[in-house]
Amino acid sequence: MKINRPLSPHLTIYKPQLTSTFSIFHRISGAFLGAAVSIFFLKIGDLNPTFYYFYRYVFLFTFYFHWFILSVVNFTLLALCYHMSNGIRHLLWDLGLFLELSKVYTSGIIMLFCAACLTVLNIIRFYLSQAQSMILANSLEAKKKSFFFASICRGDLRAPGVDHFRHMCTVLTFTE
């Protein structure tokens, strides 16, 4: 027997609330992070350090699709910050705080703001640490070269062609 009744509430007439949207995205971000961590740790055990073609493939992938890798990392960071901020909000609810409807919406907006700020700050921190490590690597390389050059000038290192380097040291000291 078929009864012609509409589904209640149907998705076309249902207006999603802010709280239900946050709850759905909290579950989606948790599932995404769980899957990402599981895949990462399951695949990291399968890597063979002598597998030449794997490293060639990874090099080509990172060379041509670095924008894709950075997008995935930034999206994962956004999911992590959102899930963490919403988890703190849920912990506050468990303590009995912010349970009135107006405070629920206010805490949701604050949670979104905190997640966005954490994501942006972490991305800025990542790029600044990369720039700092590049500067540090360049300065260490320069210090290594100058230490090597000074050691040869003092005669601490014995290597073929040291006399040529000593001649360069005397030329450099006299021309300065």
From TrEMBL:
Where are the bilayer-spanning segments? 24-42, 54-85, 105-128
Q: Where in the cell is it found?
A: Membrane
The coiled-coil regions, if any, are: none
- Keywords per UniProt: Heme, Iron, Membrane, Metal-binding, Transmembrane, Transmembrane helix
One Pfam entry name: Sdh_cyt
Q: Organism's domain of life?
A: Eukaryota
Membrane topology, record value: Multi-pass membrane protein
Q: Where is the signal peptide?
A: none
The name under which this protein is listed is Succinate dehydrogenase subunit 3
Species name:
Sphagnum troendelagicum
